[in-house]
Design brief:
By secondary structure, this protein is mostly beta strands. It contains 8 helices and 40 strands. Strands 18, 19, 22, 23, 24, 28 and 29 form a 7-stranded mixed sheet that branches. Strands 1, 3, 4, 7, 8 and 40 form a 6-stranded antiparallel sheet that branches. The chain is globular.
């Protein structure tokens, strides 16, 4: 059983991590499948102290990209800080001068880069940081570091070099956007953003970025974002209190957006700077409110007329969604309060961790089922779910709305991933990290949604990151493939490593140990060799040699 004494917790979260921009050969134990070639690219906070100044929250740290390049059975590690405007400005000043979500900086000398931190609503929602530390997004042949604001940063996945800065707001009127886009069968990017008090309205915007530009524009190196398409807009139920959301769901014919009562107070946010508080304090959970579920038809690009709702909850990660016999089924990881975010304040992650911080809400994997057919003559109070495979219900209310109660699939898992070939389709397996008593995962888990059985991997003093599924060539079953997870260790005698599991049996087949201090990351992706640009491949091969 894994354990994490408070001093180890402080070490995991509290120390700045050094970057390793040159490839470092890992020591491989076991045998990596011969077909396994590509780059595991990960993103997360790595620097929390700049000069004498410190961030308040773990999610505020400077983005540190790291990668494991797998080639010919060998593994090479490298890491590099994202050279965002935020990073450059902070390093030049040798202190934190750009505000992050949990840390407000005073004063900000970078006024040529970042707008004044508050103003009056419709004109002046503050310009946010470009410290894109959450995830990696693919758009055609390009890759971007992303966060939850309107900025993304293009990167070179081979060298981790930071390239151009992209502002979504130049292409679509959004102030915030998710770091968890979806990809359709053509490779187009589907994402959501919030437009705050724009022309007197606050709305949620669903948009599509094409996977490629027209042939005539390729030679001119035009961006795919120039052809961004707004698919649908959904008005916020409150002008000044839009819902916070971290992800959304996608099935074959529908987009699922959960408008939860975990809300951003725009008035508080607009005055946060002068009140001396951070933007995180402007997020409020309204435990007595409803959670509204919006179903958007991908063909008509309109929200369905049926109003679905459930009880108050806090939701960060969708797992998957699919359609079955005139129902939309979607699975999420949810909480009964917002205590998870509070746990990641650095003051709670130091020497007093074990005594001061506990999850008051265990992450729960829930299955919701939305009936697509609702006859006006259906009796009030009747359950409209007709699927025998679930205990989830959808009860018709007197006003015609549908009250949804989920089926509990399991508890204690977070950072869910699936075989993305099954995204939007009926599926069976969730690959996740176990999260129970602490914010740090203790196990890598495979959960069978059909049988409710679990397989897991764990090791003493080892703390796994989000597991990534990589399918085998010509895979015939959903779990034909391998699992990749970066493992941070709290034992000074044990080196960190890349863990490689057989996804079917969940047995370890190899690990690649690196003699560096890995940082605990958030999200990322595996890029197969065939999907990497080949223009600099020879240079990379020479560098790895």
């Amino acid at each position: 059983m894994a354990s994490c004494p408070s001093e180890a917790m402080g070490a995991i979260f509290g120390r700045n991590k050094e970057e390793n921009p040159e490839p470092l050969r890992a020591e491989v134990r076991g045998e990596i499948p011969s077909w396994m070639e590509g780059i595991l690219l990960r993103n997360g906070p790595g620097m929390h102290t700049i000069g004498e100044s410190k961030y308040n929250h773990w999610f505020d740290g400077m983005a540190l990209l790291h990668s494991f390049t797998i080639k010919n059975g060998e593994v090479f590690y490298r890491s590099k800080y994202l050279r965002s405007d935020t990073y450059n400005c902070n390093i030049e000043a040798n202190r934190i001068v750009v505000s992050e979500f949990g840390t407000m900086a005073y004063p900000d000398p970078c006024k040529n880069i970042f707008a004044k931190a508050f103003c009056y609503l419709s004109h002046t929602i503050p310009e946010f940081t470009d410290n894109c530390l959450i995830n990696i997004m693919r758009n055609g042949e390009d890759f971007y570091a992303t966060s939850e604001v309107n900025f993304i940063r293009k990167i070179n996945p081979r060298t981790l070099e930071t390239l151009e800065k992209v502002d979504y707001a130049k292409y679509v009127a959004v102030n915030l956007a998710t770091a968890h886009p979806h990809y359709d069968s053509a490779g187009n990017v589907l994402n959501m953003g919030t437009s705050i008090v724009d022309k007197g309205k606050t709305k949620y915007v669903i948009f599509k970025i094409p996977a490629s530009v027209p042939v005539c524009e390729k030679k001119k190196k035009k961006s795919c974002l120039k052809h961004l398409e707004v698919m649908c807009t959904i008005p916020s139920r409150s002008l000044l209190h839009p819902s916070y959301y971290h992800s959304f769901g996608l099935s074959e014919n529908y987009i699922i957006f959960v408008e939860q009562p975990f809300k951003l107070d725009i008035l508080k946010m607009a005055t946060a700077y002068i009140r001396g508080v951070n933007w995180a304090s402007c997020l409020v959970f309204h435990k007595d409110d409803k959670t509204w579920i919006h179903l958007i038809d991908r063909k008509t690009k309109k929200v369905t007329s049926t109003k679905f709702y459930t009880d108050a909850m806090v939701l960060f990660h969708h797992v998957n969604a699919y359609e079955e016999d005139d129902h939309v089924v979607f699975d999420v990881i949810s909480y009964t309060d917002n205590s998870l975010y509070q746990m990641f304040y650095l003051k709670n992650l130091g020497s007093n961790f074990e005594n001061n911080v506990k999850l008051t809400a265990i992450p729960t994997c829930k299955r919701f089922v939305l009936p697509l057919q609702c006859d006006k003559d259906t009796e009030v109070g009747s359950n409209l779910v007709r699927l025998p495979s679930t205990t989830a219900t959808a009860m018709k209310e007197r006003d015609g709305s549908i009250y949804c109660q989920p089926e509990i699939l399991c508890e204690g898992i977070e950072l869910p991933r699936i075989n993305y070939d099954y995204n939007g389709k009926k599926y069976r397996y969730i690959f996740a990290a176990e999260v129970k008593w602490s914010p740090v995962p203790t196990q890598v888990v495979k959960f069978d949604v059909l049988t409710k059985e679990r397989l897991h991997w764990e090791e003493e003093h080892c703390w796994p990151a989000e597991p990534i599924f990589v399918p085998s060539p010509n895979a015939k079953e959903e779990d034909d493939g391998i699992i990749l997870s970066t493992i941070v260790t709290s034992d000074p005698k044990k080196l960190p490593f890349l863990l490689i599991l057989d996804a079917k049996t969940f047995k370890e087949i190899a690990r690649a140990t690196v003699n560096v201090e890995l940082h605990l990351d958030l999200h990322g992706c595996f890029i197969p060799q065939k999907d990497l640009k080949t223009e600099h491949e020879g240079e990379l091969d020479k560098e790895l040699e």
